[in-house]
Amino acid sequence: MTEQTSPTDFRSPFMREAQARGFLFQCTDAEALDAAMLAGPVTGYIGFDPTADSLHVGSATQIMLLRLLQKHGHRPVALLGGGTAKIGDPSFREEARSLMSDDTIAKNIAGIEGSLRQMMTFGEGPSDAVLANNADWLDKLSYIELLREVGVHFSVNRMLSFDSVRSRLEREQGLTFLEFNYSILQSFDFRELNRRYGVTLQMGGSDQWGNIVSGIDLVRRTDSKQVFGLTAPLLTTASGAKMGKSAKGAVWLSAAKLPVFEYWQFWRNTEDADVGRFLKLFSDLPIEECDRLGALEGASINEAKKILATEATALCHGRAAAEEAEETARKVFEAGTTATALPTRTLPRADLEAGLPAFRIFTEAGLATSNGEARRLIRGGGARVNDVQIKDEGQIVSLADAVDGSIKLSSGKKHHILVQPV
Known about the structure:
- The protein is an alpha/beta fold.
- It folds into three domains: 13-232, Rossmann fold (3-Layer(aba) Sandwich); 259-335, Tyrosyl-Transfer RNA Synthetase; 344-421, Roll (Structural Genomics Hypothetical 15.5 Kd Protein In mrcA-pckA Intergenic Region, Chain A), CATH 3.10.290.10.
- 45% of the residues lie in helices and 14% in strands.
- It contains 19 helices and 15 strands.
- It has helices at residues 13-21, 30-39, 60-71, 102-119, 135-138, 143-149, 156-161, 163-169, 177-180, 182-197, 209-223, 260-268, 275-282, 287-294, 300-317, 319-335, 349-354, 358-364, 371-379, and strands at residues 26-27, 43-48, 75-80, 130-133, 199-205, 228-232, 245-246, 249-250, 344-347, 356-357, 383-385, 388-389, 396-397, 407-411, 415-421.
- The strands form four sheets. The chain has a six-stranded mixed β-sheet, with helices on both faces. A five-stranded mixed β-sheet has the order 9-15-14-11-12. It has a two-stranded antiparallel ribbon with strand order 7-8.
- β11 and β12 (388-389) form a beta hairpin.
- It starts with 12 loop residues before the first helix and ends with a strand.
- The model has no long low-confidence stretch (mean pLDDT 87).
């Protein structure tokens, strides 16, 4: 099994485009997978454990891989880990995840499903996406049956060699036996999906390589079938920051957790060196156009960033919402007006009628994580109320400052919130 893919003259449209867009990192047998895709539709899956009620931008690469599979006539399966979430994937984590209740898992699954349905076409057609939940089979497993039928095929020595396991064993907390079973259950998923849906390809981030290889080995040993594994690189920005995080926290795909405007702004703030690469990964624009836009310099690269922001937001939230976010940004940053589509924060009417010190309203609105940070923001000249700089951290801000029922607060040039009474 090959570890990392090298430039290859693939023949299947999926493999050619996946490589050209930067999705390919590792593949167990790239040439055989390429041939299988030429021979007929391939069914491939990616698993998403419901650790929160939304996925974040770090998961967008995986969804885009499933979209690309569907684009080229293959069938994607999005596997929700309702069963594996009860254990938690320990891969490259510093400590064990907190165990979740069944109600929390169900709530998280509902939230994630919304984003998946927005970004892929589900249905009964040959290339329509399938939504599965591994709780459907893992919850029914007998432990003795699992040990006898599946556990016998796993070498503890080999499992201990995985980077994801070694990194935990070297830490103070170590790895619980509960978490150690995760790889076995993920391998069981691959075999079960192969039997139920004919899945022959598992995809994921490069941190899943060990788990994917284990699943391939289990299918080969128990069912004598050839299946494949493919991973995408774990993305970082040009400056080395991990994708999926911003200065304000996780960049969620759900509009209920992150306003569409802020999602658009995340992409608009992409570093210059990342524009072309991210256009290939997170938009449907032709590769040649992505290269052209990514090569722009000076003020022109800012226009390319707006295109990236709108295209990436359209895939996640729909074209209309993306264009509204773009227009909001134009009004706020270019025309200097207050736009109603800015993210809003409600505060008690009584507090706003009485008035709050400037440092406190910035904290309450979420533009600062503490009163101390808000004070430093104001002292540094980065705080504005209705586009007017605040110089006194104790200045009272009240409903008397409202314009059309809202008070516009700004932190620097990029973060804006409308405060409204409730």
